[in-house]
Structures are given as structure tokens and as C-alpha cells.
Amino acid sequence: MQSQLLNRSLGETTVEQFEQLATESLYYDISPLEYPRFPLKKKVSPINCLDFDKTESRFLLSGGSDATVKVWKVGTRRATTVGSITKATGGHSFGITGVQWWPFDQGMFLSSSYDTTVRVWDSNTLEEAFMFELGSKVNCFDISPTGEHSLIATGAESTHIRVLDLRTTSAAHTLSGHNGTILSCKWSPVNPYMLATGSSEGEVRLWDIRKTASCFAQLDLYRTDKSKAVSENKSKKVGVMKSSVKAHAGGVNGLCWLENGETLISTATDEKIRVWDLDAPGGVNTLLNFGPFVKNKTPSAKSLVLSPVGETEVQYLWFPADSGEMLMFRLGDGKLIARLRRNLQDTARSTCVVYGGNNCATYFSGTSDGRIFVWGPKIEDET
């Protein structure tokens, strides 16, 4: 680091290069942090999902299996609850399956639940602005990060995806084709009309919602070379491909795009993580191996988080394992960089993870015993 400081003072290293090098070094010093500290009540329930606001990185949403949604203000030393939505205050009636801030401001957030609804909330008053009734348990939802439209993709205990429109407060599309219930869905970060979805039958499908035959690709774990023929649509039903094509041998409960929109990461209850090259038509399994420590048997939605592109020379993939560990992999070669656990007694399942923002190399995770943990580089004044 001293040599880098000298190069920076001599003008041989740019500010951006120096910042990247400094942040890279932080990722090799990741450990459990005591601060900011989240209060723990005697009566707790599993934390199912988390999300940080994208504008200021100060407010954290958490959703629990007790149907409670909380808004936390995260400070340097502690986190305080600034609002809570419960059954008693007109919130969801069953466990929360997803929470997400509106990507472009802090005035609104959404939540989904096993009570068959997706709800839109005013973050200033914590009052419900609108409710979508889907008629079946909602497993997941996602908001497009591009800002080109106001569509919300949802996956429920059915074989089709419902795309909701916040502007018209109605269902805009229904995407049919999966052979199992929908466990995960993610919009492309660059193409506002491309959606990836995963099902309980191990399928990963790619959709272009502008087309009548919306499903344009079904990822095949055995297609490891772009020269191999792409699976053809043998069914007469619109959007359906032959059911033998699988991306995983278990339910696909987690999806994550790289920022360029040309690579997709998937995980499933077969305890595998796969990286797909989508630059080739039909997608190619890159055969990247992440090792034997991927524990993932719970069929509920699983969050996968990538460190921001450009923050470090290589990107890191964070995975909340059922074993209670937080796993950090180097994305380029799948090497396990860290197996994080607060102590040997903490075996509660890690359920979700979210990035803290602002080049902090700090991540927040939730557990099945109702705690929120913080992971990052040690700071000097921490005791």
C-alpha cells in the first residue's frame, strides 16, 4: 500500500485506480462486525429478506416470517427502527417473502407475502398506497432497475409469471411456460424487457415481454459449448419448451445478473451455483465450480449479491448458506475467499444478504433466528 501511495502522489496512479486498489484490499480483511448493532428482542422470528435504499444507503428494509416489515436507519454505531408495519397496523397477514425499495427514490417501497398480495407503501407515512391480489402465495418479485417502465415481475405458487404495472395498477402480462411453481425472478439490468425466472422444477427461462412468444431461451445445464444446438420449442403452447431442459437438478431459488446483462448466475436446491454466458444465443453453462460448501436445501427465495463492478478488479459473489455461514467467492474462477461465521454456536440458517453501498465493502445478512449481522473490514476504533 505504501508503494501505491507513492505512485498516487507522483501521479502515476489515478484516483479511480487508487480507490479500486484500496477497496480490493478491504475484501481480504472481511470479518464479522459489532457495529452497527441491531437490537434483538426476546420474541424473534426469521428474517426472510433485506434491502438497502439505493440513493443514500442509510435505510434498510427487513421482512420477517411474522408478517412484519421494518424500516431501519443504519448509523455508524447502531441501527434504530424508524417504522414498523405489522398485522395489527394493517400490514400483511402471513410471512414476508420480499421487500424492495423503489430504485430511484426513498418515497416508496414494495413487499410481498404468503398472504397472496404484493403491496405498495408510502415510506413517509408507512401507509399502504395500493395492493395487488394475486390469488396464490407470492414467492418473489422484482422491480426493473433501468427506469424504462414501472413493471413489477412476480412469481407465485403457480406455473406462470404475473407482470404488474404500477401506473395502471393492473396486471400487464402473464407469462406461461414453466412446469413448476416460480421461486425466483430478476429483470435484466440493461434490457428493460428481458426477464429471467427460475422454477421448482429446475428450469431457468429468459423472456422478452414485448413478444407474443415471450420465452426465447431455456437454459440447459448440458449445453457447455456454444456450438451445441439450442433446445427447440417442441410444444404447440406459446412460450413452452420441452420440459426435459433443466438448468439445475433442484428448484431454482436464486438469480443474479452481472451489470452488463450478458451473464446470469443461478443457484438451486441441488446446492449448485451456475454461471451462464448469455452472449451466445440460448445461453451456455460456463462450468464454473464453486466447491462443496454451497448449502442450499430450503426452497424459499435466496438472495445472491455481487460486489459492484469497478469497485474492485474482480467481482465477489456473496452467498447466504443454510449452514449459517456467509460465503464469499471470487467470481472469475469460483474460488472461495471467505467462510464467515460469528462464532461456532451460530448455526442458524443465513437467509439473505444485501450490500451496504458507497464502496464500503460492508454487507448485511439476515438469519432464521431473527438477527441481522454485519460483515466488513475491521475499523480501528471498533471494540
Please supply descriptive tags for the structure shown above.
single chain; 383 residues; mainly beta; four-stranded antiparallel β-sheet; 2 helices; 28 strands; WD40_PAC1; WD40/YVTN_repeat-like_dom_sf; DNA repair; DNA excision repair protein ckn1; DNA damage
Explained architecture:
Helix content is 5%, strand content 40%. By secondary structure, it is mainly beta. The protein has a domain at 1-33 and 314-377. The chain has a four-stranded antiparallel β-sheet with strand order 1-28-27-26, with no helix packed on it. Strands 2-3-4-5 form a four-stranded antiparallel β-sheet, with no helix packed on it. A hairpin with a 6-residue loop joins strand 2 (47-52) and strand 3 (59-64). Mean pLDDT is 89; it is low at 238-242. Keywords: DNA damage, DNA repair, Repeat, WD repeat.
Radius of gyration, taken over Cα atoms and rounded to an integer in Å: 21 Å
Weakly predicted, low-confidence segments: 238-242
The sequence of SSEs as H and E is HHEEEEEEEEEEEEEEEEEEEEEEEEEEEE
First CA to last CA: what distance?
25 Å
How many beta-strand elements?
A: 28
Discrete helix count: 2
Helix/sheet category: mainly beta
Describe the sheet with the most strands.
4 strands, antiparallel
**Strand order, largest beta sheet:** 1-28-27-26
Provide a concise account of the structure shown:
The chain has helices at residues 2-9, 15-26, and strands at residues 30-33, 47-52, 59-64, 69-74, 79-85, 96-101, 108-113, 117-122, 127-133, 138-143, 151-156, 160-165, 170-176, 182-187, 194-199, 204-208, 215-218, 252-257, 263-268, 272-277, 284-285, 305-306, 316-320, 326-330, 336-340, 350-355, 363-367, 372-377. It is mainly beta. The chain has a domain at 1-33 and 314-377.
